[in-house]
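User: My collaborator sent over this chain with a note saying "see what the structure looks like." That's all I know about it. Can you take a look?
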Amino acid sequence: MYNTLLILSPQSKNMVDISGEFYGKKERQGKLEVPKFWEFPYSLDILQLSQKQLYFGIELVGLTAVTQAVKFTVKATFCENLVGADYGHLRTFVPWSNEDSSILLHENVSNGVTFRLQTARPNKEVRNAELQFWLNPHCKYNVSMQISPQEVFGQIVRHYLFTLPAFLMMNLMLVLVWQTFTIAKHGCCPSFPAAHRTFAQPYRVLVVANFMLLCLWLVGAEKLNILHLPLPEKYAVPDQLPETLISIFLYLVAYVLTLAVYFLLKLFVWIIGIILSPCINRYHFISLL
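Assistant: Without extra context I'll predict from the sequence alone. Here is the result:
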């Protein structure tokens, strides 16, 4: 319980307006379940704040992964006799990673902030990410939220794109293994797309690989360290489940890119062959003479 309030203000001839308010501990605090990506593609009004309020806080339940991004829009309206005043602040706070940022609010303007995590919430963490409104008591506020597909894709690129070369190399190595195996067994080598479609298909790789990684996570990092088995860093975290959907998505991207690059190279060689074929035929004709 606080009983002392310190207010610092620069020396000025302008009058300083100080507002105060008493309210219960849970009176200005609410909880909001953040929907999944596919649950609401449009803007959704979630809160309307009347005048004579100085603060309101929202705990964002369900905002736990780095692949989530929610845009909140705040609009200050019906501000009484305010010219060039402070219309409030919007603060985003993540307790487990100390991410803290804020923006100034303006009147009759949609003030937007995108809430995205840089660190996933550990399973043992009981606190939630928070959205805090520091308000001007002379204004009304309307708050809405919307999933931001662009920011979700940006989060995936920011946190997982660096693993894409490994998935591309996995495709190439699987093709090489299948071609080598076929030569050893039948004495002939299948083409690149035939070997790729035969042995590097996602259902052949991802089902087995993700099952093995899930088993490693269930066994636990401590037991695997005793056996001196290597374990990826994200699976060494005891309370963080493997992100299977991301690995499936990235492998599918790598699978398509591998085939696309192959056919582009094949098209390039075909075009070069057409361009150089007259010269080759002429040289062959001269050599016969």
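A starting point for your reply to your collaborator: Strands lie at 29-33, 44-49, 55-61, 69-77, 88-94, 99-104, 110-116, 129-135, 140-147.
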